[in-house]
Amino acid sequence: MLLILLASLLLLILCIAVLKVNPFIAFLIVSIITGLLLGIKPSDLAATLQKGIGDMLGSIIIIICIGAMVGKLVAESGAAQVIANTMVRLFGKRYLLWGLVCTGFIIGIPLFYNVGFVLAIPIIFALVYQYKLPAVYVGLPMMAALSVAHGFLPPHPSPAALVTIFHASMGQTLLYGIAIAIPTIIIAGPLFAQTLKKIQPISNSQTFTPNELPSRLPSVANSFISALLPVGLLAITSIVGLLVPPTAPIASYAKLISEPPMVMLITLIVVSITLGKSQGHSMGHLLHLFETGVKDIAMIVLIIGGSGALKQVLIDSGASQQIAQIFTTWQVHPLVLGWCIAATIRVSLGSATVAGLTTAGILAPLMASFHVSPALMVLAIGSGSLFFSHVNDPGFWMFKEYFHLSLKDTFRSWSLMETIVSVVGLIGVMVIQACIYR
């Protein structure tokens, strides 16, 4: 049984990394082959795949799609630029890196990684030319913050999907994620950047254009509140849940509002007013932005659905139970096991999202026997999925080309930064495990 699982993972790696098959199609092909090898009847296999995809997307699609809409509006309204300018002015030249870290973390919560990356580049290079500082030294801390938000924090696709798969609390995952993210960003960002001051670009050409901002920008307060609204809603409802008796009417409403789809829906309604209508945007323009935002993440949604098909194959075939018995004999902590599997798949495939979802498909049926916090398992796998980005990761090439680096310097800066994020993230997970769940 374990050999079939390993062969399936190798086939998935072969399809995506070598044959360049679309990850969604690769998941379907591997799920079908794995299901047949594990003894699922051909007549039942289609129903298994449909159930896996439906169960996965049914609980996650609202969060991801509305998150894409909110992120698009935060970027296009100029709110992200307002936040960046405010943080740079607040921290000044002396503490510029810390300002960029805070900016990256704040805009990284609502913005998907690729959007945040492209949005950050003009900000970074404007400061590079203004203060005559090395580009990698200035830019890497902000990229570290964006990467941590992408791997650790809902509503980003992989963490949000993992929360659903492991039936974890979104609020608890976000709370632990922020607690781990802060020291992780500090170490992988400003502190690590101190060792990169001598890295120079191999050319001086510019490959970016300034962001085209609307003539009317939102206020500073509006920008910060709109970007951080999901975190604020989860925090408020969590506090209400602790202070109010469960039988009180307000507790029921707080529980309803704390549900991730409701948090994102409320956020979308509010930002449509604060960053949309109040800034003079027509409803037609807002609908166009939302449509574009959903198109940007359409393939991610399909990949998440494909991972659900593989997970359901393992459950319906009974393989998950046999694998559970094997893993329970291993002398490895479950959180470390989740990190190791995700890190291995990440290095093999390059995609953090695919690494996280594949690992979750393997381990989700085993959670009852692990006796660990589902929120910490989400973060352990999220940390592992960021391990050692290299030539098979599009993010590696984006960083290399935008900063005009050699391969050696890209490994020395970007790849090592991602590895630090991954390892420190795991350490943070294990510290919380030791302190709270002894």
Automatic annotation (TrEMBL):
It is a multi-pass membrane protein. The keyword Transmembrane applies. The chain crosses the membrane at residues 27-49, 56-75, 95-128, 135-153, 173-193, 224-244, 256-276, 297-315, 335-358, 370-391, 411-437. The keyword Membrane applies. It is found in: Cell membrane. It holds the Pfam family GntP_permease. Keywords: Cell membrane, Membrane, Transmembrane, Transmembrane helix, Transport. Its main location: membrane. Belongs to the GntP permease family. PANTHER family: GNT FAMILY GLUCONATE TRANSPORTER (PTHR30354), HIGH-AFFINITY GLUCONATE TRANSPORTER (PTHR30354:SF22). This is Gluconate:H+ symporter. It comes from Parasediminibacterium paludis.
